[in-house]
Amino acid sequence: MTTLFTLQIHYEQDVVQARQRTRELAEQLGFDGQDQVRLATAVSEIARNAFQYAQGGRVQFDLEESSQSLLIQVQDQGGGIPHLSDVLAGGYQSSTGMGLGIVGTRRLMDSFEIESSEQGTTVRIGKALPKRWRSLSERESPLFTDSQLQQIGEAVLGRSPQNPYDEIQRQNQELLRAMAELRKREEELTYLNRELEDTNRGVIALYAELDEKASSLQQANELKTRFLSNMSHEFRTPLNSILSLSRMLLARIDGELSLEQEKQVTFIQKAADGLSELVNDLLDLAKVEAGKTEVHPSSFAVSDLFATLRGMLRPLLVQGSSVSLVFDEPDELPSLYSDESKIAQILRNFISNALKFTERGEVRVTAEHVGQMIRLSVSDTGIGIAADDQERVFEDFMQIESHLQKQVKGTGLGLPLSRKLAELMGGSVAVQSEPGQGSTFSVCIPIVYPKAADLPDSLQPITALNLARLPILAIEDHTETLFIYEKHLQASRYQLIATRTLAQARQALQQLQPAAIVLDILLEGQNGWTFLRELKSDETTRNIPVLVITVVDNEKQAIALGADGFLIKPVEQLPLLTKLNTLIGQGNTQKLLLIDDDPAWRYVVKQLLTGISLQVLEAERGQEGLVMAENEQPTAILLDLEMPELSGFAALEQLRHNPITQSIPVIIYSSTQLDLETQSRLAQQGVAILSKEKTSQAEAVSHLRAALAKAGLVLGA
Description:
By secondary structure, the protein is an alpha/beta fold.
């Protein structure tokens, strides 16, 4: 910051001089005529305020290198501005004028700050320097040399002040020029309005013609869809009859067939099968285009879908074929809440095509978690598709020429139908292929069907509360995000209470006291910031930790309004659990109770927990552990199942039936292989089941830390 010069305001002519000096300085700095007038007018208004209301003041002119701006500060020692907020809002009218000087100045300047108190008022205004100075500063440093600043100051202060009447005359001339400019712009605007009216008339006529053509196309499309739908239904009855009669003949129900007759009937059956496939695809396509296809979402595991498809499609492999069909087992994927039958239909189309156009190698089906979507892919080592044809394969009835095309039969509707079904469920399909190398067809499906009318049962606003788990109130208008939260908190010490609106959240808060609140700020049609302030100003809710999770990085604003934590979407399971554990367990000593009769294993566990801030309690017998759990109230319990006298099964049962210990999270350790029924029964009573037979220390540490996070312990870095 470099101060150029200052002016004192003692008399009315000083106000005129301040205006003159400002314009002259702006001229020296290369501002154009309009900006010279803006600066002079702004300084004149603020300096006049200082003279009228504070009997004087001081005007200081500075150059700021960092912002490349001319900064002007007008300071007085009057009694301050009592109605400053009204003045800045433009709603105050002074007794000596219109009360618009400050508001007008703020509009004229690039920057404006005002501070007012009983000790006086300070107004700081700024204007960015002309572009030529800013472009020079990119090549040279500093912006101005000392000699340049001295020349500018001498040029301004060296001029003798003009007669006030001359200044008024000049001000009037500036006003007349401004009015002439406004008049010229008004005439240009009138001309443009006329041009726009003529253009609008043309656009209206064009839209009318387009609407007429669109209506005709829609009618033609509806007729086509109706025709396909009706004809498909009409074809089905005779086709089913042909297929049934063919099967009866081939089954020799009414007697033997000659070899020639069997060959003829087989040809008839194959032709009917192909025609039936075409009719089914046409009917499905017509229903989708007509908007009559409904999505029936339900919750299902991808692994179960793969198991069903594996059994259904394995017969498509020719005996002795050099092509293998491989399903990669999905690893820790969340369940899908979508239409399982339609997703299976898409994958069947992908797999069927892959098997048709793969002569040797494999067809591999995989699944992966991508953000809030699940991507299901079918990769083959077949003939591949040229780049120019990769979009064409999704056109109706399109079949790409190849040496295998004549050997396999198809309708050319499977892929177009798959794309339409995926879009119907809020997803998309894609293909990656290289001729001679193979192809990968994939479909991305939202974890939760976006247009679901009802939430899954587990995401209803208020479900039956489990007293052994702490309620977490989530306020989120995206169903798929709630579904992910529910999966993240599954098998942890927390229970999700899902709400999609602020009204539902307020209703839930009247019925329960959550351990924490997870809040999305960007709620459609609702103000999350207002609700956050409401939570922190209400005595009944101000002590509930609030974790803001949103897509915009506005952590500072969230913390300033009272949020206790902040995360950016998408959020993974461990960061979410860690943040909740930290907020809920603040100020509490972390205790972990080990109930295990093997001292060597207790030592191993303590070594695995090195670096985590917690107090480890040990019990050699089940009964001793029960007493210690009731007296010490640990944060979590690590329980061995195989113990003398009182087994881990019996100890767990007593922990869950004791009101004092029923809410303590229990991590179960076992050295034996448990059957599925036992695992299912134990999973309902503990947060995790860990095996003592881990292959490596790293794996053991990883599983143990994940289980401790689910149990509510803060693990640190």
